[in-house]
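Final report, Chapter 2: Outcomes

The project's central promise was a pipeline that accepts a single protein chain and returns its three-dimensional structure in a standardized token representation, suitable for archiving and comparison. That pipeline is now operational. To close this chapter, we reproduce one record exactly as it appears in the project archive, with the input sequence first and the structure output second.
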Amino acid sequence: MFKLIVRYVYSFLALIAVIGGVWAFYDQLVAVDDYGLTLTLKSKEKLIENNHQTPGLTMLYNGVEVNSLFITKIQLKNTGKRALTKDFIYEPVKITLGKSNKILQINTKNLFITHSINSITFKWNLFNPNEIIEIVVFSTQPVTINMNHKIKEITTIAYIDEIINPPTEQKLKAISIFWFLLMVIAILLTLDAVSLIKNDKKLGKIFVFLRSLPDRNSIQKEAFLSELLNLYQDYYRSVPILFVKPDELIKLVSENITQSEIITGHELYKAKQEGINYVRHLNLYSIRTINIMGGPLLFIFSFIRILLALF
């Protein structure tokens, strides 16, 4: 009766978890507001600079003398669920780049974008959801953005600086593939160690058989090798990776003990030692089982390193 109750409680909790997950996913999908704009500073790069104004060196851009030249990429995106028409614009979105900064040129595919010596104005006839207006600004100083606007239904335009806080995709690209490979290796090492330890009982049967040899007066070599083969084959089938195959094990042990049909005396100790050496040491049992702790530690270390790179 108790087991039946536990089963129903577990099923109920699992159902609640699934419903909660589906609801959370749906809530995330519909979380976008009807109206929204996001301005993103995508990149900023210094092309040339001559702050010391080297005598005899003159730099021109489109016929204008400059001491420095910066290129900046800016995006305005409709992040809402509804389109914005020109009727929404009470006052266009205007960004100023600082009083000492001079705009030398802007590149954009949008015909409604205009600019003065240190400001850029965004306008549109129709701005659809997820549509992006992108501009490339050539200026004399690094861009510092100040923004003002009056857009119907939008009180605040979100601002994202991807130079200071790059998107997750860029952060992932910046992380060396080495750390991801290290995580995979850590998982494989841990699984390998678990598989070895899980089958310790079958390995133990082999060792019990081998360690019992010195207690005997004698044993038929063929019977010894046959028993060892049967026990090792059972162990070999249970563990995904063993470096010594059953036929190889029998060949190695057979070559290093007496060639007579009967194993007696010192040869019993030798047969025991040879069997243990090839079963345990050539399969690197002692080294590989350490990874039951080393594997998880390596995984945690790599995982923390990736998290630090992301955040």
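Archive annotation: The chain has nine helices and 15 strands.
This record, like all others produced under the grant, will remain available to the consortium after the project formally closes.
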